């Protein structure tokens, strides 16, 4: 099922594009079986499962929230920062729990966090500062961390022919990382 394009979009197409549109429409009408196979394939397609996929990258793997978690998400986001922690343990999907913990750890001072978030906070810090227990992205690859960024800056300096402005930007980034991101 394909929605027809809106008139406001069609008005911007030149005659060549309109001719292509008509050719495609005719092809679809003449090849309904192939078109149905394509539609069926994409309707039933499932993204490959990636073990240990990081919650930030797990949109397609974890699926949509059920009505309970959806309501809980709304309550979590509308709560005051000091009250958000009470919702974390109520999520049914572990990915939502992790995402809620991250929001808390990013936006609430560590001394105000409940003890239940200590393990999570320490895991994130071990990864950021020591590269342990990597967080995996949607490709199953480790996400960047503090040391990796500094190594990449060094590599760029040695491998690239940087102009003065690019060198200054790298210097600023390196200073920012070294001064602003200190372990707690």
Compact description:
The protein is mostly helical and 184 residues long. It contains nine helices and no strands.
What does this structure look like?
This protein has helices at residues 7-10, 15-30, 32-44, 59-62, 67-78, 94-107, 118-130, 146-159, 164-180. The chain has 184 residues and is mostly helical. The chain has three domains: 7-44, no CATH class; 55-124, no CATH class; 147-180, no CATH class. Helix 8 (146-159) runs antiparallel to helix 9. The longest helix is centred in the C-terminal third of the chain and has 17 residues, at 164-180.
Query: Quick one: overall form?
Result: extended
Element-level helix/strand string: HHHHHHHHH
Give the helix/strand class. mainly alpha
- The count of β-strands is 0
- Percent range for β-strand residues: under 5%
CA-atom Rg in angstroms: 24 Å
CA-CA gap between termini: 54 Å
**How many structurally independent domains?**
3
Largest sheet: none
List the helices and strands and how they pair.
Layout: H1 7-10, H2 15-30, H3 32-44, H4 59-62, H5 67-78, H6 94-107, H7 118-130, H8 146-159, H9 164-180
Helix pairs in contact: 8-9
Give the key terms.
0% strand, mainly alpha, 184 residues, 58% helix, 9 helices
